[in-house]
Amino acid sequence: MRLLLVDDERNFVETLTKRLRLRGIDSDCAFDAEEALRMARRTRYDVILLDVKMPGLGGIELRRRLEELDPSLRFLFITGHASQSDLAVGSSEASHYLTKPLHLDELLEAVEDVTGEDMKGGKR
Amino acid sequence: MRGRTRQRLRDFWPRFFEARSNDTRFFTFAHYPRAWLLTSAVLTAAACFPLGIAFLVDYGFARREIEVEESLRVVRRASNAKRTIAHFLNERLDALRFTVRTVAAEDLRSTEHLSSLLNDLNFGFGGVSDLGVIDRNGRQVAYVGPYDLLGEDYTERESFRQARDRGTFVSGVFLGHRNEPHLAIAVRRDADPPGGDFLILRATVDIQRLVRTLEAFPAAPRDEVFLVDRHGILQTPSRAFGAPLERVRFPAPGFSRRTVSRDTRDDTGRRILVASSGLTTDQCDTPFILVFVRDATDMTDRVLELLGDRIVLFVLSTAGILLAVLLTVTYMFNRLFESDQSKVRTILKLEQTDRLVSLGRLAAGVAHEINNPLAVINEDAGYARDLLTIPSANRSDGELLMHMDSIIESVDRCRVITRQLLGFARKVEVRIVAMDLPEMIESVLSLHRKEAEHRNIEVRVEVSEEIREIVTDRGKLQQVLLNLVNNAFQALDDGGRLEIVVSPAPNDAVRIAIADNGCGIPPEVREKIFEPFFTTKGEGRGTGLGLAISYGLVRKLRGSMSVTSEVGRGTTFTIELPAHGGVNEDETPSGG
Predict the structure, then answer these.
(1) Residues of B in contact with A58 (CB under 8 A)
(2) A58, B136, B305, B477: which has the fewest Cβ within 10 Å?
(3) What is the distance between the terminal CA atoms of chain A, rounded to a whole angstrom?
(4) To the nearest whole angstrom, how far is the Cα of B481 from the nearest Cα of chain A?
(5) B272 — phi, psi (to 5°)?
(6) Are B591 and B23 spatial neighbours (Cβ–Cβ below 8 Å)?
(7) ipTM
């Protein structure tokens, strides 16, 4: 299980990565679309967490590019908007959208949801 | 009951005169009293014009009728008088003719016989002053009368010539030896047997009897009947038009055997009706023209009375029409005005709603802006907790400190945002203030900074050095700018450009141009863009009020707003506001 977190909010994504690593989940972070694409080419990820709004390429568009790279990739979106209904875009289910601030448990549940793997039962 | 009646009556009283509302941009008529006045005037004129024409035509006919009637009356009187005068002359001529037929030539030459003839004639008709007999050489061979005219030569006289040639003669009036107006009549006694010498019997007739006969004809006090000759010289006396043998004091009538009438004026300018007819006897024409003159004052009075009646009728009809028009038009305008007012009330209410919608959008933006630093804080705090609770974590003070600093920094970010928001909300309440325009633009744009960043939209603000401050209603200007910037962002494609240029305008005004290089507005849309409820955003996405309200707000700030646009090239909204302007605020109790 390997995660890639993409968000332009550096502090947020770096700290989140550290916390996931503490829980034994292999995680990397990228701060923009180009970096994310570069890393996805180099490494095989299972789940990619994307910020919906980013300078340059946004999360939705980036997901399309990444899917072209590897159709088996699973995606989660994260947004600063308070309500998910604001973002009825893309084809993913609403449950794959997470709102900021993020509860770590919710993130892990969502990852389990998209991968089918039990993560909380594993190491914390 | 009485209250309802009063309410009904109020419907017919123009209410839009006292009503004051500067929200006339939503009114059917910008200036109600003027439109009301114009409509009433046009309707009244349209109704009264044909009426006026009808009255004029009717008056023309009636007047003509009066004039024709009067003229016929005058002609009739003149004809009667003419017949009587002709009869008067015929009688005397017949008497002379009878005499020359029955009296032998020798007897005519005898003075005694002639004298007894004169007595007989005076007995029969009266007014014969003398009697004379003229032979073929024009010499008076017998004479009875007050003068010694025996042997007088008549060869050059009309009486001799015409009697010789035509058999009968009537002279014009002359003074003669007696210095009294009289006329001469003469008949010829044909030679007996034929081929012998003829004689002419000539009598001088006093005109007093003629005058008395004429005096019987006038019907009205100022009517006059008299004789003139063919040169317009009076033959019998008249009261107003001269003495005998003077020229008559109006244009002289010509000789005509038919009686003709004329409508003319005398020398003093008085209007008169003149009927005239050339006088003839059974045997010959006479030099006389009978004239009947009637003063036209009575007729004029009748015509004026007629006109007066028509005018009174016309004025009454017009007043009736005017009243009907005024009541109807006023009623309609009142209804229209009421409907306009309720429209304005609705729109003003919607302006409030629009403000709430803007604030809602603002709140959503703010939430987004705050959620980001909150997320950072959440992770920092979560990580710090992890470090303290997860044994395998390799914690160091330096790392903890770094995350604490990050928390503090994020809190600072939140504080900036909340302060901006508070400023925004508080300043809505303030009325007219002097304010820093660039700062205000910045505060409006700050709500879109993130979006601009994400969508790669270039935002450029250029404020002319001369303008730092503007005195106006902050809340209103903010609402307008927010609205226009929102619109621009909606029109822009990702990677587009938004420019806000502030520059001075004439008359101490400030021009704010908000230009985007988005999709542009087609001309047919541009025409309606400031109309309320006009939207292109589709069902449920826009109220269609944003620009209408902005337009209204700018007007309230005594400013103007315009738009230029080119499809595919972009749109520029330009606002001009007085730099030190007041506000048209007093009029709307619910406004603002």
Answers:
(1) 454
(2) B305
(3) 14
(4) 24
(5) -135, 155
(6) yes
(7) 0.85
